[in-house]
Amino acid sequence: MIGRPRLRVSSFSRQKDPPMTRLISRLSEIPPAPQALLCDLWGVLHDGLRVFPAAAEALVSYRARGGKVLLLTNAPRPAPSVIAQLEALGAPREAYDGVVSSGDATRAELDSGRWGRRVVFIGAEKDEPLLEGLPLERVAPEAAESVLCAGFADDASETVADYVELLTRCRARNLPMLCANPDLLIHRGGREVPCAGALADWYAREGGEVVFTGKPHRPIYDLALKRLGEILGEAPDPARILAVGDGPATDVLGAAQAGIPALFVTGGIAVQETMRDGEIRPDLLEAFLKRHDLAPAFAMAHLA
Q: Is residue 142 a part of any domain in this protein?
């Protein structure tokens, strides 16, 4: 049920039953304030072309009040590369304490040696920092031990169909795939562009083995909680953290599986299904959450 009830002070304590989803218009409306945020990037802080000023201001203000912000992204590149992109977009450094990416979690998997050293790499030039410093050899499917999928070489023009021949060759050899970005798509400006998850989805439907490291899967949350502990100087309590994101199947689901309350930003991926004329329609939101079997603690149109 969607509504605006008075939120119990125990919202960020350990509860068996999650609170009803509450609509808010500003992050500062949440009492008591969470100890830390795990904040998504695409669709929440920026759209790949520009930073959302209200979102950046909200994070800066939250940190000024003593909160900590760890940006948690399914970008298939390691944190330094993500930070460089944020700086290029003009995101204020005062808006966050650190970054953990799906690329970071993927590198930890690759470094384990479980995926072999000869890999089929699927991705763009911008994704190549994922490989830096790792003893990997990029080879054709016929010589590979696994597939590393970071995304499309050109997501502005390519579709899954452009990769069917390559993926079929990989599948013929039963190569396991490590997917560095579970997202199916993102919004760049006002345009939908495909992500690595779309290729991994095709591979899995053809019977291929696929392992994901990013949201909503556990590896990225384990890494994020470890990094957050370093930032806080103590082991974080998941019930006192708030996960902020626009992805129902990534941010909201992943938070629920990790025992972390979630703030669902409806103005991103789910805008067409939850909003009209720039405003959340409570009936549409309630139906949407019920359809996806999700119960975030909070929902808002845009982070502010």
A: yes
Instruction: Please give the single-letter amino acid code of residue 104.
Output: D
pTM for this entry: 0.87
pLDDT tens readout for residues 158-190: 999 999 999 999 999 999 999 999 988 777 777
**Residue 207 corresponds to which tokens in the numbers above?**
């019977």
| 3-class state of residue 138 by DSSP | strand
pLDDT tens by residue, 96-150? 999 999 999 999 999 888 999 999 999 999 999 999 999 999 999 999 999 999 9
Q: Roughly how many angstroms between the first and final C-alpha of the chain, as a whole number?
A: 23
Residue 153 burial (CB < 10 Å; 0-12/13-18/19+)? middle
Residue 143 lies in a domain: yes
What Cα–Cα distance (Å) separates residue 300 from each residue in 56, 138, 210, 284, 297?
A: 15, 43, 33, 13, 11
The CATH number linked to 153 is: 3.40.50.1000
